[in-house]
Amino acid sequence: HIAQELGVSKQTVYRHVPNKKELVTACCALSVQETKEKLGELVAESDNAIDELLRIDRMMREKLEAQRKNMEGQLNAQFPEAHQKLSEERTEMVLAFQRSNLQRGIDEGLYRPEIDRDVVAKVYLSKIQGILDQSGGRPLIPGLSKLLGEAMVYHLHGIATNKGIEYLKKRMNE
Description:
This protein has 174 residues and is mainly alpha-helical. The protein has helices spanning 2-6, 10-16, 20-45, 49-66, 71-78, 80-107, 117-134, 144-159, 162-172.
């Protein structure tokens, strides 16, 4: 499919990568890099930490909805090392983003200053992973996007100050 999408032959693709495993690994790395770049853009465009989190949540839910059914399962079954590396890189990316967002929110007075950034980042990650695990790798199950959106609002209510809650309410009413 990749050669066809590029408009080249399979031989041309395999001149640049030695085998399918390396091709999949490179595609996974590219996916993580593109997501990091998009996250950076959204962070830069956001007015504050809550706006940042809501924008990124929307982007991630859109990516999930666009994902083919059971793509993760197929990747894990056929290329377990690439899947493991992708999972590890995503985990580190989410944790790093969350820690950064939490610090920004604390600095802006939108998040409670006493929260432990590492613990809250891990709780957030576990909550999202739990929701996705319940979906059985089927990102297109009815209501998944709404469930993830509600999980984000729940998360924000747990970390926000009164100022942050007021801003969140304002954003939710827009």
